[in-house]
Amino acid sequence: MNLASQSGEAGCSQLLFANFNQDNTFAAVLTSLAVGTKSGYKFFSLSAVDKLEQIYECTDTEDVCIVERLFSSSLVAIVSLKAPRKLKVCHFKKGTEICNYSYSNTILAVKLNRQRLIVCLEESLYIHNIRDMKVLHTIRETPPNPSGLCSLSISNDNCYLAYPGSATIGEVQVFDTVNLRAANMIPAHDSPLAALAFDASGTKLATASEKGTVIRVFSIPEGQKLFEFRRGVKRCVSICSLAFSMEGLYLSASSNTETVHIFKLETQKEKPAEEPTTWGGYLGKVLMASTTYLPSQVTEMFTQGRAFATVRLPFSGHKNICALALIQKIPRLLVAAADGYLYLYNLDPQEGGECTLMKQHRLDGSAEPPNEILEQGSHDRPLNAQTYNSAATKGKQTHNKPFYTVDIQQIDSVYPINCILFCNRLC
């Protein structure tokens, strides 16, 4: 996620970009955080809470505004502010550039999975084959998408791409990147889209609009609404990110406010009808019956789910990105923010409630002040350490001819991608 402000400045922090690699939905002990800075880019291991291990740093490219790593492999896609139309694909362990592509407009987002690499421009999307970087398909003349909003499923079986279908209302276009055809159009919101996220299986898509009050989850590719959650009613906010947990039971939503909401995706079991025995029970039955005669907007508020857990961030107004993962066998919420910090919270999968801040780490290399926030946190409730499972451009792009292939069968000592990138020219 681009962490710079609309003016292009990252403020006092060196951070320009941050993103959790795709493994956070599979094997949390192997997750990593990619960070783009004014001086280059870095990768951090997220296998422990108390220590943030820097596993790689590159200072060859300044002002890195996009850095996307393919799972836990050596493949990384890079875009810098000094060359915003140029995509570089590199083997970071060897320190070599594999190939590069140039486009006629600024690159706003890059997404990767085992089969495809997606490049998002303001009015077009390019779909590349990850094995040889050939352009398989171009989606042209898309509605203006200045934020580069899009989401790519990491599933092999459901390899879908989601992007805005309108600049004025919240339509979602779902595209099958394997068969290279449109799969569905989902009328998700009345207002323009602000955030999109697939679950690990590629069968659910979470959406939020620019109003930021309602989060919806749809089945993919059918487009049926499965869940609807209300983030709040007092104020409209800008949703920064949505993220599912590894098995799709929880969904986190962060915004430009100090609160992160975590919703639980479980279907409420219908209870058999019972005659009320108290005045309160009778009044509740009357209220529910009266929803039949109320406007649809009011009726929806009675049926929308509320947050299962919340996180109180020590800041507001900063862009941020969140992720749900298991670290050291405990469910955690991770938040990387434009203030230059990574925040780690414990999530109680049984009780929910307010999550406890366990640790914060500096991401830009400057000295870390005493962790005063931890002293303010509440540690009264013991942590239940159960796991989740127990509970357009109109021009043409130019490129250097690719000279590599990706051998998915080779072992790189990591799960689940297990791939090594072999550069034919270098081998």
TrEMBL record:
Subcellular location: Preautophagosomal structure membrane
Record-given protein name: WD repeat domain phosphoinositide-interacting protein 2
Topology within the bilayer: Peripheral membrane protein
Record keywords: Autophagy, Lipid-binding, Membrane, Repeat, WD repeat
Molecular-function GO terms, alphabetical: phosphatidylinositol-3-phosphate binding
Gene of this entry: WIPI2
Family membership: Belongs to the WD repeat PROPPIN family.
Any one cellular-component term (Gene Ontology): phagophore assembly site membrane
GO terms of biological process kind: protein localization to phagophore assembly site; response to stress
